[in-house]
Amino acid sequence: MNSLSTITKLAGGWLQLKVPVPFSLRWVNSYLLPEKSGWTVIDPGLRSAETEAFWEAALLEAGIAWTSIERIVLTHHHPDHYGLAGWFQEKTGAPVYLSETGRRSALWMWGENETSSGELLAAFAAHGMPAEREEGMKGHLRNVIGQVLPHPRDVRPLPEPGETFEMAGTVWTLIGGEGHAPGHRSFYQPDLRRLICGDQVLPDITPNIGWMPGTDPDPLGSYLASLRAMLPLEADLAFPGHRDPFGELRTRIGEILAHHDERLDRMVSLLAEWGPMTAYETAGRLFRAKVMDDSHQLRFAMAETIAHLERLVLEDRAVRREETGADGKPVIRYGPAVPV
Ligand SMILES: [Zn+2]
Question: Any idea where the Metallo-beta-lactamase domain is (predicted)?
Answer without folding.
Answer: 27-242
